[in-house]
Amino acid sequence: MPETPEDPRVELGRRLAEIRIRQSLTIQGLAAASELDPSNLRTIEKGQGNPRLATILKLAGVLEVDLVELFRGLDPYGLTGKDEPHPLSSFEASFWRPKDRIA
Fold this sequence. Notes:
The chain is an all-alpha fold. The chain is built from five helices and no strands.
């Protein structure tokens, strides 16, 4: 039975927390430097909610890490509920206008 991928938001939060701790920052310190509310940062680090791209970019800038370090290997198919992606290949032919579909 294939293993269900972990929600990528949880892994992203874990990575942010690890980097923050490695740099000897508290949640309050990183929140202040990033102009975020500490409770918002806690939510992100726990993998809850859906942080805006601008927030992730700001955190990466403050922590001086490349976005690749934050996002490498995250599996979009770990998202659940309304965020779960449906690959284009799963849509029926009737979804496409005739001239849109090349293959």
